[in-house]
Amino acid sequence: MTDSQNRTAPDMWVDPEDDPRTQWADPVGELETHWSYLRSYRATIEMKCVDLDAEQLARRSVPPSTLSLLGLVRHLAKVEHTWFRRVLQSRTDLPRLYSTAEDPDADFDGAVADPAVVEEAWTAWRREVEAADAWLATQTDADMATVVLHHGRPMIVRDVLEHMVEEYARHAGHADLLRECIDGRTGQ
Description:
Layout: H1 30-49, H2 54-58, H3 69-87, H4 106-109, H5 115-136, E1 147-150, E2 153-156, H6 157-183
Antiparallel strand pairs: 1-2
Helix pairs in contact: 1-6, 3-5, 3-6
Organism: Isoptericola luteus
Protein name: DinB family protein
InterPro entries: DinB/YfiT-like, MST-like
């Protein structure tokens, strides 16, 4: 991304014509619509973290909250892993990501200002997004009504995908506020 002095819209993260989220702006069908919203919110999270160092990414919001941008990246990797792999693909053989019985909030608790932790978080998030997208690419609009069992309860694929959009939307709002506290940059 270019600095604000070189943009036609300096108050925005990127010029509107360079916004990566517009590539999903014309979805066709139910699956593609949900997926395009999810992709857009994923890109928003990445945009909110750009150009920040480990300390800035790990900076906590308001004590005693453990909320940070790095924690959000780790949390969203965990959410992608849980819903797309463990639930929708019934891969309960996979260990949980960033969550243990002793520390169910390890995603946020372990978000410390260490470049290796930052690198690992982005690697995990990108791996889980790629795996989710690979699975979604095998689905059709008809699959949106498919029922899977989760803890003995029926879950509809559509509901899980809508939950993922809601999860990202909620955390994109958090990311807006966290980024503004770090360097004053506000949302687009």
